[in-house]
């Protein structure tokens, strides 16, 4: 069959019924029938799958001819609408062929050292020229200096499949974002979309062949991505929405985490889990035990004894412990090691405990029961991958300037007065165009700062502080604003409308840890 190159000859052979149905569906451009026939073909056995791969390989030639002549007709001025639809259908059939051949192949592709950015940008370009992608706003962040040992053609196909999957999930106009970054020593590729999301009942099966949440896709794309990821010893998974720091957050995020390359073997991170419930400690042991050294304690007192023996990279503690509370443990741990990182767990969240956690430098707040244990694992990994935050800068006692990001004149006047009561001078900033000066004694940033609202305001305030403490003021203080402020590293998150300027000045003075003049 290979030597003849003739599709008709292949059909005169004793072709299995599912294969004949697949060929007819592909030639007719019936994607639903093609998907159904391909599923039946896969169940028919490995020999039949190999035969299908060979026949589909032959189909590429007539598809190429159809595509080429459609492009020539477009140059001759034929009606653009029907031609655009024809080209889009041809490209979708090409994708079915490529995906099925990849799934059927048992031969690993050759690999070499390459910059990940090149195949990612190639996939973005190929995605953009598809007429159906014109309704999608595509953003790509792919620095050139991230390299892996891999196959450029396959990485391009993986990226393109993820992009097509995101596009096909959205019926109308939409947004897709690609981010290439480093997570510790490992390259990570994220593809996020602001579509309808993946139904909960499909999340556990989304990488199986022919499983799809929409009627536009083939159901093969994510299976191919998983296959390519495994060939590169990478891990493909659904990631938490919060890993892409956008407002609003994306509905779906896929992450491809590649193995660390050319990195010396590192010692396992040490994580101390403190909870009086043994089942919770077991969950963390099974969740992170393969990649971290898990140390367990049933009380705060036991945890402090363990910390006295050796430091740890992260403490995960319940708030309500017998005897010493989790907040007291965090305070004691940071007194012993100022760079101690603590994640607090609680089944009874409150604004008061969140504020206390902020003052103690707790890095995050986990709510029990956990909605998704994979999100917990992602949080632990990302926390461990980041270097501990440096200790706040020792500011010059003579430094009295506090930068205030506030565009509300009444609020700016109240903050200025409150700072003056503790001997500090406010520099009011109403835009994001900031003058470069020596680091301030502190920063006050309004959550409601119009030029950069919410999370953007936190990022701006933290950058402006240059290591000095920064305080968040919110007109409507909620758990959400307090938690976001905590995760950004704020020294405090306070209500903007306090009883009087004296109360606000006391809180600001405590946050900036200055002596009363």
UniProtKB/TrEMBL annotation:
Q: Which residues carry this modification: 4-aspartylphosphate?
A: 318
Q: Does the keyword Repeat apply?
A: no
Keywords annotated in UniProt: Kinase, Phosphoprotein, Transferase
Q: What is this protein called?
A: histidine kinase
The superkingdom of the source organism is Bacteria
EC number of the protein = 2.7.13.3
MF terms (GO), sorted A to Z: phosphorelay sensor kinase activity
Q: Show where the Histidine kinase domain sits.
A: 54-262
Q: What EC class is this?
A: transferase
